[in-house]
Design a protein that fits this description.
Oligomer: single chain
Number of strands: 19
Number of domains: 2
CATH class of the largest domain: Alpha Beta
Radius of gyration: 21 Å
Order of helices and strands: EHEEEHEEEEHEEEEHEHEHEEEHHEEH
Strand content: 25-35%
Number of helices: 9
CATH topology of the largest domain: FAD/NAD(P)-binding domain
Bound molecules: flavin-adenine dinucleotide
Shape: globular
CATH superfamily of the largest domain: FAD/NAD(P)-binding domain
Structural class: alpha/beta
Distance between the termini: 30 Å
Length: about 350
């Protein structure tokens, strides 16, 4: 019998577990994936880590992120889209070159070492064995002393008990779990109605030996109505004298999940061609294109997320009804009181105190 079980080792779950460990509780984190971090995911090269999930934070208006970055001793640097021309592609594929890109206010800040450095800092506070990877929770029962949590691991089912449970995951995935006693239908619908922020999206990363778009006078930033990518930014990492030269672009797809899936094999070539159209022929020859499609990740998205909202949602705190509310707390970013959907929301929902 544990004091606390946390489901999900994303930023919210790691923050919640860290709190519990610091207050002397016996805590277990059950994570469906074979890695921690959740929507935080990095692609590592000899040069460093590129973000395939969240890449930006806004510490000037996000106090918890600011505190966590400070406490973790992480360095920040701004996203720069204003160091050259901006490319705009209309729906017919025509490209226009605008004199300069846009400076953001407040600037979107990137974390040196990638967003995984932040997740790793939270995970490092947990004693070995606390996080159980590849443990997908499928059912939760209310017991006299708290909760019994059933999870699958390598095709085996096991049940673990705890006094309290924190579900640090998107509400839509909570709705997919079996509750005994069952959640009333309107509560399940309430959970299903909360879109998981960015879950229907995908990111592409194009790696180069040098920033060839800069040589052509471009900042590496673009917007496209044609796709496959809809919004592109320079993803290059800050200089490091010990590492080989490398530069990168990243883009969010304009194409919806269905079209991405239908064109999956062709996407790297189509993306390279688009980058060439936008920034000149040299940019059309990346040495590698990496694609992370979140819509296909069952530990993030459900089918309904494929038609994800175009605009950021107004998220709010959600609780479960009796007999759950005393022992179970929802804690994913999408139930945060502020900055729901963002990393700041994950820290807030997870209970990180600055
Ligand atoms: C492409 C993309 C770009 C983004 N960009 C930004 C950005 O620039 N800035 C920003 O602030 N935010 C951004 N976000 C949003 C940000 O990633 C999220 O707000 C944040 O990571 C949510 O953390 P979380 O812990 O609440 O949820 P998650 O990271 O989703 O963690 C939930 C965890 O629960 C696990 N899980 C799910 N179901 C089960 C189960 N049944 N049993 C066990 N474990 C389970 C999952 O595997 C996962 O590890 C972006 C997201 C994406 C996908």
């Amino acid at each position: 019998m544990h004091d606390l079980i946390v489901v999900g080792a994303g930023l919210a779950g790691l923050a919640a577990a860290r709190n519990a460990v610091f207050s002397g509780q016996d805590v277990l984190v059950l994570e469906a994936r074979a890695r921690s971090g959740g929507r935080i995911l990095g692609h590592r090269t000899a040069r460093g880590v590129y973000d395939l999930g969240p890449g930006w934070v806004w510490p000037s208006m996000q106090p918890l992120i600011a505190a966590a970055v400070r406490q973790a001793g992480l360095a920040l640097y701004p996203q720069r889209d204003d160091r050259g021309a901006f490319a705009y592609q209309d729906a017919t594929g025509q490209v226009r070159r605008l004199a300069h890109g846009f400076a953001q206010e407040p600037p979107s800040m990137r974390i040196m070492g990638g967003m995984t450095a932040l997740a790793d800092w939270f995970a490092a506070a947990l004693p070995a064995g606390v996080v159980k990877l590849e443990h997908r929770v499928i059912a939760v029962s209310r017991t006299a002393k708290g909760v019994a949590v059933t999870c699958e691991q390598s095709g085996r089912e096991m049940t673990l008990e705890a006094s309290r449970l924190i579900l640090a995951m998107p509400p839509r995935l909570v709705a997919a779990m079996e509750f005994t006693p069952a959640l009333p239908a309107h509560h399940v619908n309430q959970l299903l109605a909360v879109p998981t922020w960015m879950a229907g999206h995908a990111k592409a990363l194009a790696l180069y030996d040098s920033p060839v778009w800069q040589a052509a006078g471009f900042a590496g930033a673009a917007a496209s109505q044609a796709g496959p990518l809809g919004e592109i930014h320079d993803a290059s990492l800050p200089g490091s004298p010990d590492a080989p030269d490398e530069a990168a672009l990243f883009g969010f797809f304009a194409w919806p999940a269905g079209l991405r899936a239908a064109q999956k094999a062709a996407l790297p070539g189509l993306i390279a061609a688009q980058l060439g159209q936008l920034f000149g022929p040299e940019s059309g020859r990346p040495r590698e294109v990496i694609i992370q499609d979140w819509a296909g990740e069952t530990a993030t998205a459900i089918l309904a997320d494929r038609q994800g909202p175009a605009q950021h949602q107004h998220y709010r705190v959600l609780t479960l009804p009796a007999p759950w509310q005393d022992v179970v707390r929802l804690a994913g970013s999408e139930v945060a009181a502020e900055f729901g959907g963002y990393l700041e929301g994950a820290l807030s929902a997870g209970g990180f105190v600055s």
